[in-house]
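can u do me a favor
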């Protein structure tokens, strides 16, 4: 239990008492997401996205298991088996579109979840481990999504695998050996397809395991809140159930509404038309691009066009791409400000807005043709991305003057709704 005033589970029926003694699963649920888990009373809808990410993962696992029953991970028939699923399997078109668009929904929800953490300072002490496990989940998701993109064995699948794995050859000395080891050959073929399929099937369950650790680590300090002020007492909290289960239910309904609109009305909106052409090693697409959720990192990769300090541009690009993600591991220590929420950090809030624009620019550049203008835009945006975390963020943390924090969560809630703080009420009497 995160707080001493959390309610204890007390089964009333004989069956539930017996089950609680032998296998205390109801107690676990009660203490994890029930009335036994007190949470701050001021959580807004931005806190829904963690639950939405869990819902998206369940959808991906369920649809993925059924699709795996009909898919053949063989370079000769993989594309044909995908078309077989679409045309001949009952409901196969729905399962495939739900799985493909579910990946986009999953990543979109996670990006918003990360953005919420950046805005409200959820990475700060005592929640560093929650953040670090979240970044691990993000890396596992990216690996899973990349390998899943290869499986349909269309043109973009094949050449995406060829280009991305080709960057490993930039590692001095052992790069080419590592690339051949990853692919099981000199180019993507049966061996690579089998490996990617096996790992793509396995990694979602690894993600689920790390999510359990993520939630476990969250329950020790308890949830952050929009004020960033620590919980002072029972008056600052409400039971998770029924208050936030109802609120999460509204979010889940909105999530499935958007998901349904995407699957039923624009299932190919976020895909690439070239992936409906069977993979051909002898025909290179005019413009090779990854899925939309990889575009900012792809732009950073492409931004290095010249050698520097005797290091090839290709290697600089690979290091920068991985470095842009690894930076997130050090975020709790790069931002030394004692104030968590950007609501009380006006300078930090402006720079966070600039970072959002910068990431959107990187996304545009990642999907655009590599002409001179786009390359320069990508280079400037890449420089700013690293400068934000390594230079601007530590400087802002030391120099800015935050706004006064409320004395408690309750005081902030009452002030927002036109009430008074408990202290002011006591003085009035």
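np, heres the sequence
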């Amino acid at each position: 239990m995160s707080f001493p005033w959390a309610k204890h589970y007390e089964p009333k029926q004989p069956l539930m008492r017996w089950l609680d003694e032998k296998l205390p699963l109801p107690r676990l649920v009660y203490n994890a997401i029930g009335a036994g888990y007190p949470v701050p009373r001021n959580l807004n809808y931005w806190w829904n996205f963690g639950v939405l990410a869990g819902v998206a993962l369940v959808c991906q696992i369920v649809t993925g298991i059924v699709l795996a029953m009909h898919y053949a991970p063989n370079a000769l028939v993989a594309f044909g088996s995908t078309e077989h699923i679409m045309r001949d399997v009952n409901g196969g078109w729905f399962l495939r579109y739900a799985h493909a668009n579910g990946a986009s929904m999953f990543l979109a929800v996670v990006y918003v979840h990360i953005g919420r953490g950046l805005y409200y300072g959820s990475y700060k002490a005592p929640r560093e481990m929650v953040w670090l496990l979240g970044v691990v989940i993000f890396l596992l998701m990216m690996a899973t999504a990349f390998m899943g993109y290869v499986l349909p064995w269309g043109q973009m699948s094949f050449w995406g695998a060829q280009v991305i794995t080709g960057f490993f050859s930039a590692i001095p000395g052992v790069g080419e050996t590592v690339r051949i080891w990853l692919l099981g050959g000199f180019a993507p073929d049966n061996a690579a397809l089998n490996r990617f399929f096996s790992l793509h099937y396995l990694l979602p369950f690894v993600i689920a395991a790390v999510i359990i650790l993520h939630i476990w680590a969250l329950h020790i300090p308890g949830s952050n809140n929009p004020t960033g002020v620590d919980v002072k007492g029972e008056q600052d909290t409400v039971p998770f159930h029924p208050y936030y289960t109802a609120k999460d239910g509204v979010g889940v309904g909105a999530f499935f509404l958007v998901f349904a609109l995407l699957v039923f009305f624009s299932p190919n909106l976020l895909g690439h038309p070239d992936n409906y052409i069977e993979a051909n090693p002898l025909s290179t697409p005019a413009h090779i691009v990854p899925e939309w959720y990889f575009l900012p990192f792809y732009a950073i990769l492409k931004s290095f066009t010249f050698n520097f300090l005797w290091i090839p541009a290709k290697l600089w690009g690979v290091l920068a791409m991985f470095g842009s993600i690894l930076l997130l591991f050090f975020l709790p220590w790069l931002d030394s400000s004692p104030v968590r929420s950007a609501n009380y950090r006006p300078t930090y809030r402006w720079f966070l807005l600039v970072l959002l624009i910068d990431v959107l620019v990187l996304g545009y550049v990642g999907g655009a043709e590599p002409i001179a203008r786009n390359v320069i835009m990508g280079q400037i945006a890449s420089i700013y991305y690293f400068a934000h975390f390594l230079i601007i963020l530590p400087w802002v943390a030391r120099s800015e003057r935050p706004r006064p924090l409320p004395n408690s969560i309750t005081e902030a809630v009452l002030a927002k709704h036109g009430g008074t703080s408990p202290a002011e009420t006591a003085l009035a009497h």
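DSSP finds 17 helices and two strands in the chain. hope that helps!!
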